[in-house]
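User: Reviewer 2 asked us to show a designed sequence for the structure in our supplementary figure. I'm pasting the structure tokens here. Could you produce the per-position amino acids so we can include them in the response letter?
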């Protein structure tokens, strides 16, 4: 336990400027770190095998995190809430932050070999949507997530927070090049179902009934634009969630949850 009262202390560098999205997007993957925020998320990251670099705690969280402090051979920086805000750039409501070491990402083929239900995301670059999709994937029994190269970082602080740590529960990999990498999925025996509101798509229940393949890869596109023409062409089938009351589509996070339930039930 190390008490720190200088916001410019270089030992706190992992936590500086957390609200600068562009800076953190570049810096965290380059330095092999990510930030876990809140007691539950920190514990879930540890349970998933991520190594802790350090913790930043306000006084009221020291007792709650005492077992972690005693178990982990990493420095724990005790700071006031005011100093934490000056370092991070925002009021740290949950009072507990941990800098964690990233793991190397697995190869897509390694994930696919042991999976039956897979979600593939194209250009989903909103961290809130990434977190929500991972949370639904974990809760509804999806086995793996594959991301196009331009998808947002699942380990960015906002993604981790929205997912409540579910990003640690579902293994993921990057598919590169895109969309040619989709052939890896098809070669592993997964029919590619593209989720789209296009009227030419078949209702989701028609493609996920008792006769459907046990192995299924569900393609999701970004909010607004949806899947690209190239991804739609690569799919084996287009599927849609039937809408009512003149609504044309759902938010991608909500649509993902409905689709995951359909393909895993």
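Assistant: Here is a per-position design you can include in the supplement:
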């Amino acid at each position: 336990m190390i008490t720190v009262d200088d916001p410019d202390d270089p030992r706190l560098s992992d936590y500086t400027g957390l609200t600068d999205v562009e800076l953190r997007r570049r810096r965290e993957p380059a330095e092999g770190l990510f930030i876990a925020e809140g007691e539950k998320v920190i514990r879930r990251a540890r349970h998933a095998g991520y190594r802790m670099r350090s913790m930043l705690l306000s006084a009221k969280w020291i007792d709650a995190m005492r077992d972690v402090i005693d178990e982990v051979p990493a420095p724990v920086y005790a700071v006031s809430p005011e100093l934490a805000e000056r370092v991070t750039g925002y009021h740290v409501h949950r009072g507990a932050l941990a800098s964690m070491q990233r793991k190397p990402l697995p190869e897509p083929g390694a994930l696919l070999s042991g999976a039956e239900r897979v979600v593939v995301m194209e250009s989903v670059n909103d961290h809130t949507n990434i977190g929500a999709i991972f949370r639904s994937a974990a809760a509804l029994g999806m086995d793996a997530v594959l991301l196009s190269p331009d998808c947002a970082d699942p380990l960015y602080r906002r993604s981790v927070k929205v997912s409540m740590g579910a990003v640690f529960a579902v293994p993921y990999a990057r598919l590169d090049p895109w969309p040619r990498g989709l052939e890896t999925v098809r070669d592993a025996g997964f029919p590619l179902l593209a989720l789209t509101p296009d009227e030419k798509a078949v209702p989701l229940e028609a493609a996920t009934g008792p006769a459907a393949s046990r192995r299924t890869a569900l393609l999701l596109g970004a909010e607004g634009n949806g899947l690209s023409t190239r991804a739609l062409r690569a799919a084996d089938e287009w599927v849609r969630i039937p809408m009512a009351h003149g609504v044309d589509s759902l938010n991608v996070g909500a649509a993902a949850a409905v689709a995951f339930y359909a393909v895993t039930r």
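For the response letter, you might also mention the following. The two ends are 48 Å apart (CA to CA). The mean pLDDT is 93.
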